[in-house]
Amino acid sequence: MTKATEQAVDSKKVRNRVRRIFGYENTILAIILIVITAVLAIFSKGRTVTRANIFNMLLNTSVRGIASIGQLFVILTAGIDLSVGGLAIFATCLGGLWTTTGGSPVSAWQPVNSLPFGLAVFLMMIIGIGFGAFNGVFVSRLRVPPLIITLALSQILAGLSYNATQGYTIFNLHPALNFFGMGRVGGVPVPVMVFVAVAVVAYFVLHHTTFGRSVYATGGNPVSSWLSGLNVPRILFSSYIICGFLAALSGFILLARMMAASMNAIKGLELDSIAAVVVGGVSLAGGRGTLVGVVLGTIILGAINNGMNVMAVNPAYQDIVKGVIIIVAVTIDMIRRR
Amino acid sequence: MKKIVIPLLALVTVVSIIFAGCTQSATPTAPTTPTAPTTPTEPSTPSEPSAPATPEPVLNPYEGLGIKPDGTPYRFAHVPLFLYNEWVAMGHGYLMSVFERAGATIDLFNSNLDAAVEMATLQDIQANEYDGIAILPVDSASAGASIDSLWAAGIPAVSWDYKPASDNLLCHCEEDQYLLGKLGGQFFVDYVDRTGEPLKILELWASMAQDGCIRRHNGFHSVVDGNPLITVVESAPTNHALEPAQTIVLDQFSADPELNALWAMADTVEGYTQGLAFCDRRYPIGHPKHVVIFTGPGEPGSLQALRDGIVDAVGSMSCWVECDLVSKALLTYVCLGEDVPSEQFVPPILIGPDDTYQPYLYGNMRGVPFDEWPIIPDSYYESRGFSDYIPTPSK
Q1: Which positions ≥6 away from B149 have C-beta within 8 Å?
Q2: Is A322 on the interface with B (CB under 8 A)?
Q3: Is B295 helix (H, G, I), strand (E, B) or coil?
Q4: Closest by Cα among A50, A58, A48 to A190
Q5: Pairing relation of β-strands A184-185 and A188-189?
Q6: Chain B interface, mutation test: which of A169, A239, A273, most B Cβ atoms within 10 Å?
Q7: I need a surface site. Which of A297, B82, B315, B391 has the fewest CB within 10 A?
Q8: DSSP code of residue A47
Q9: Which residue blocks in A100-189 are alpha helix, DSSP H?
């Protein structure tokens, strides 16, 4: 081989390697995160990149992150779940009522004696699974559009939450919640560890199991999936159950972090979870997207929020800045994916 | 999967039904006072506050007032801007108990922070010919137009907390929110004057879209701006939610060690005290790491934090006082046919650690059924320097 030919071959290898790197699904997202982190670090004079602040940012992102992972399963099937926020709040309210000690009951939802902690948490998760199944039945069996049924459920859950708490903030919660909300293991906040654990399990399920591949197939082309022998209704049903369970889990972490249960504990969780999924490169049409992308999307949004707070940006401009950054991030990623 | 999930769904339904019960009590009770919030390094040691020094319940002066000459009850409606808030919940509970004591009825609606829903609700109320309404409006401008229409239909409206823009509003009742902001500002000015210690204050916004919050902000800045020892950093709005309050406080206090004070204009004490705990800044008065905190409106959580020394002072913005005046305005005008003043702006009071059990603080009324809350006597308003109050009506 002549020298010119060798150089041409080497150059081609380098170009292919670069294409492989940047062609990887989430490379651009990772680069966007790095750029945002760098810009925030410069403008905040390094305050956003301290170890303590990074853990704070991840801690503040944990509740939304868990809900976003649940939302991912649904959106991959070309669905959507607008009841995530309502379900998290409802689970929080019930968890508070079931674990509070002392005081006269607020409503008939509160037992006279608080439930054992483990049982209360278990029932919170069952509530999440149950309402996820509620959505799943309507979407998979009755073919009700997901937007409609989940929106309706969010209204129902708001009413149930008010019914349960009568608008009050519930205190005197079980001290075991302190560990899940404020505890640290090896310096890492427990909510962050829960978020990471959920992400790891979800990654395995989505990318290394038949069920995960079925979710992608169902979202990509439900008719072909059905003709190929996949039980599409069951896959849809399961996706909403997973979303419901993770919404309840995010509610549990929220309860532990606040050490109080309130109907106004958090707002806009459903839209935040959808935003994280979309920023993470998941197609709302279904069938495309990765868990890593959603995690990166969640962290990008969390980093922007954290950066705005740390730099004490004028609140009148914060929403504008956040919106612009999101538009730029998503646009760059969309262009790359074409 | 179906074999497991469907029985689980059934179990959820059954469990829900069991816990929901079939009926609720007519007068919902308020939950009990919370125990002290704990710092992360200390085990939870709930403290039992001593019994509040609540005066003896006043005999019901409203007996029979709410019954029309034909024997039917007067019908009132209450339209608050949202329901998922302890302050609104306790205000409505007290209102309901007052009208029930009078023999009238009061129906609860919910605007759900939606001005369009509020407008539609007010139109429905007009169509259903209520005798009077109490309203905590979402939006002053849109509510104003509806109130004009109600007045034309012979239905008077009394507002509390946020004043709608209407010339036909019967009365507006409020613990003055501008003065509440001034009270907070003066607290910090007095602090720096007394100690000489400069303060860098985080102003924790509630909602930048609500004029009551804007008035609190303006009142606060009218006092502190220009003070050489005070710097104010404004936060993003919490929209009355706990999680944003926690997040904002955690982020900003972690990133800026110079921040040593907090002005929290709304009831998010559980959120921001947990945020301080996360960044190891939740310590009582006297500790080197203590954050000087002034907060409103005097809910149970803030009074408890005051007793624990976490919060330095509370500015009252009492749903009890406001709803008391609302009920008096409606009963006086509708049931007795007497005129009432067009405004009731009660000056807020400063609650310190040593007087958290003073009378008529709604934050101490947890665990007390609403129909046992005493009617606030006229002498209380006089003691607060407010002489233009609506006197207690009676038949």
Answers
A1: B122, B123, B126
A2: no
A3: strand
A4: A58
A5: antiparallel
A6: A169
A7: B391
A8: G
A9: 117-140, 146-165, 176-182
Spell out, as residue ranges, where chain A has pLDDT lower than 50. Answer: none
* Reported confidence tier of residue B28, pLDDT bands at 50, 70, 90: very low
Residue ranges of the domains in chain A? 25-337
Interface list for B 145-164 with A (CB within 8 A): none
- Do the Cβ atoms of B84 and A262 come within 8 Å? yes
The minimal CB distance from B19 to the residues A109, A133, A257 is found for A109
CA dist., res. B5 & res. B12, Å (int): 10
Structure tokens at B186: 């003066």
B75-175+318-383 and B177-314 share one CATH topology? Answer: yes
The ipTM, to two decimals, is 0.82
Burial class of residue B347 in the structure, from the number of CB atoms within 10 Å of its CB (0-12 exposed, 13-18 middle, 19+ buried): middle
Calpha distance B372→B29 (Å, rounded): 10
- Residue from B12, B207, B259 whose CB has the most chain A CBs within 10 Å, to mutate: B12
Q: What is the CATH number of domain B177-314?
A: 3.40.50.2300
Place of tokens 């779940």: A81
Q: Is A49 on the interface with B (CB under 8 A)?
A: no
Residue type, A283: S
Of A53, A129, A314, the CB nearest to B255: A53
Give residue-wise pLDDT tens across range A242-258. Answer: 999 999 999 999 999 99
What's the CATH fold of domain A25-337? ABC transporter involved in vitamin B12 uptake, BtuC (1.10.3470)
Is CATH 3.40.50.2300 the right assignment for the domain spanning B75-175+318-383? yes
Instruction: Count CB-CB contacts under 10 A for residue B283.
Output: 16
Q: Are A173 and A100 in contact (CB under 8 A)?
A: yes
Q: Does B24 touch chain A (CB under 8 A)?
A: yes
Model confidence at B2, in pLDDT bands (50, 70, 90)? low
A58 HSE (CA, 13 A, CB side): 19
Distance (Å, whole) CA B374 – CA B63: 14
Q: Read out DSSP for B76-105? A: EEEE-S-SSSHHHHHHHHHHHHHHHHHT-E
pLDDT digits (tens, 9 = 90+) for B270-300: 999 999 999 999 999 999 999 999 998 999 9
CA gap B364, B307 in Å, rounded: 12
Task: Enumerate the domain spans of chain B.
Answer: 75-175+318-383, 177-314
Are A128 and A245 in contact by the 8 Å Cβ rule? The answer is: yes
Per-residue model confidence (pLDDT) at position B46: 37
Between residues B220 and B212, the one the model is more confident about: B220
Q: What is the pLDDT of residues B308-366, one digit of tens each?
A: 999 999 999 999 999 999 999 999 999 999 999 999 999 999 999 999 999 999 999 87
d(CA A51, CA A301): 18
Half-sphere exposure in the Cβ direction for B283 (13 Å, CA): 12
CA distance B47 to B32: 13
